[in-house]
């Protein structure tokens, strides 16, 4: 008679994931756990169980919960520098705003939930990672798009300012705070067509 597999023991040896596959599963489970239980409820044990592995596999890679969470965010967030800019001001602004929207979607809006509902220290850490990975580069790229548009004569010279560059991202964050993380395409389109184009065009 064969021995009964203990559910707490995780997957059978033949199906156990290793290397990059296991790491991806852990990082994905971390984001899912952050969304479902929040920062204060996030534990290495809970992530390990959700990923179908033991917590020793987590501690071999990351020193603590915050180290794991920062890695998970970097894993799931898009890279604004990979956005292909075409020289069309409207299209480029739209692509960069969609990059910000996608960052929110891929994290299930978790960063904003933490900032609104939980400890300031967690919000600061999460904001730092998201800022360095997505928000800061997007602001810089939006400012560059506006600068090039002003230099070409398509936009007013006053449009090439860092203040104007913050308008689109701020409207996306405003939507998320009041309506949740699922920002529709037509809302992002309207930011460009109804706000940024009238604000910046000659």
Write the layout of secondary structure elements.
Layout: H1 19-41, H2 44-51, H3 55-59, H4 65-76, H5 89-106, H6 110-117, H7 120-152, H8 162-165, H9 167-179, H10 185-200
Descriptive report:
- The protein has 202 residues and is mostly helical.
- It has two domains: 16-65, Homeodomain-like (Arc Repressor Mutant, subunit A, Orthogonal Bundle), CATH 1.10.10.60; 77-200, Tetracycline Repressor, domain 2 (Orthogonal Bundle), CATH 1.10.357.
- The chain has ten helices and no strands.
- α1 (19-41) crosses α4 (65-76), α5 (89-106) runs antiparallel to α7 and α5 (89-106) packs parallel to α9 (167-179).
- The longest helix has 33 residues, at 120-152.
- The N and C termini lie far apart (82 Å).
- The model is unreliable at 1-15 (pLDDT under 50).
Radius of gyration: 21 Å
Helicity range of the residues? 55-70%
- Strand fraction equals under 5%
CATH superfamily of the largest domain: Tetracycline Repressor, domain 2
Q: What is the domain tally?
A: 2
Q: What overall geometry do the principal axes of the alpha carbons give?
A: elongated
Major sheet details: none
């Amino acid at each position: 008679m064969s021995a009964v597999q203990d559910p707490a023991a995780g997957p059978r040896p033949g199906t156990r994931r290793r290397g990059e596959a296991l790491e991806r599963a852990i990082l994905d489970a971390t984001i899912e756990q952050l969304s479902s239980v929040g920062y204060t409820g996030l534990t290495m044990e809970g992530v390990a169980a959700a990923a179908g592995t033991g917590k020793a596999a987590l501690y071999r890679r990351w020193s603590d919960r915050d180290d794991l969470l920062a890695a998970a965010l970097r894993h799931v967030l898009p890279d604004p520098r990979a956005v292909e800019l075409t020289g069309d001001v409207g299209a480029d602004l739209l692509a960069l705003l969609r990059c910000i929207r996608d960052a929110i979607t891929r994290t299930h809006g978790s960063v904003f939930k933490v900032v609104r509902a939980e400890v300031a220290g967690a919000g600061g850490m999460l904001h730092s990672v998201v800022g360095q990975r997505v928000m800061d580069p997007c602001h810089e790229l939006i400012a560059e798009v506006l600068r090039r548009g002003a230099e070409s004569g398509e936009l007013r010279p006053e449009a090439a300012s860092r203040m104007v560059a913050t308008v689109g991202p701020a409207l996306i964050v405003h939507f998320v705070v009041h309506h949740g993380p699922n920002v529709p395409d037509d809302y992002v389109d309207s930011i460009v067509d109804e706000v940024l184009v009238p604000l910046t065009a000659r």
